[in-house]
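Private note to self, pasted from the team thread so I don't lose it. Backbone tokens:
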């Protein structure tokens, strides 16, 4: 089985809702990750999202997990090499 890629971020209601809606549709989603140097990585994957631990005095967080279901496609056209 494929391992999931996990990303953490600070909770913001509108963004969390968008991710939650995608996760609830189930099935494959088109995923594109763009790195700071311009490299873009595209693939199909299944998305899940959940809230992190909530503690008094700390900003709430979430975790986005993406399980790839296709090969990665690399686009170097915008890279600053």
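Design output:
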């Amino acid at each position: 089985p494929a391992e999931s890629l996990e990303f953490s971020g600070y909770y913001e209601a509108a963004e969390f809702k968008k991710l939650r809606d995608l996760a609830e549709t189930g099935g494959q989603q088109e995923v594109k990750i763009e790195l700071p140097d311009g490299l873009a990585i595209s693939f199909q994957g299944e998305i899940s999202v959940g809230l992190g631990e909530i503690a008094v005095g700390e900003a709430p967080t979430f975790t986005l997990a993406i399980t790839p279901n296709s090969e990665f496609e690399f686009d170097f056209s915008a890279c600053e090499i």
